[in-house]
Amino acid sequence: MEKFFIRWAANAVGLFVAAQLPGMFGLSFPEGLSEYFPGQVVPAWAVILLAALILALVNTFVRPLVSMFTCVINFFTLGLFSIVVNIAMVFVTSWIMQSLFAAGFITFPAGILAALAAAFIVGVINSIFNRIF
């Protein structure tokens, strides 16, 4: 359980850093109106924390299944297909966020570069957190 909270914190830091970099190809976490709480504006920091929680849950439950089904492709590409899996997990997170709020933080297909950059930054920060903790 402690490892999950560390992963959640690493995702939050990674998404925050990715959103702060200039020219992130449309990666943003705007304040927005929630569909479930009409008239309530959700602050950007809360959206980042929720996106980090959803990304941690997606990486915990969905990613192992996707990795299992794509292990042959990953073997033949010498592990490079895992980048595609990372991008897909960021898109799944954005899709879930889009169902919770009016808009997700990445649009398809214009956001492929943003998803790649976000997946890379979150992955690097996750590896740093894993080494420290």
Report on this structure:
With 133 residues, the protein is mostly helical. The protein has one domain (2-132). Helices cover 68% and strands 3% of the residues. It is built from 6 helices and 2 strands; from the N terminus they run αββααααα. Strands 1-2 form a two-stranded antiparallel ribbon. Helix 1 packs across helix 6 (112-132) and helix 5 packs across helix 6. The two termini are 13 Å apart.
Briefly say what this structure is.
This protein is mainly alpha-helical and 133 residues long. It has 6 helices and 2 strands, in the order H-E-E-H-H-H-H-H.
**Quaternary organisation of the protein chains:** single chain
**Class by helix and strand content?**
mainly alpha
Q: Outline the low-pLDDT stretches.
A: none
Number of domains: 1
Number of helices: 6
Total strands: 2
Overall pLDDT, averaged? 82
What is the string of SSEs from the N terminus onward? HEEHHHHH
Q: Approximately how much beta-strand content do the residues carry?
A: under 5%
Taking the sheet with the most strands, its summary is:
2 strands, antiparallel
What level of helicity do the residues show? 55-70%
How far the N terminus sits from the C terminus, by CA atoms, comes to 13 Å
Anisotropy-based shape? globular
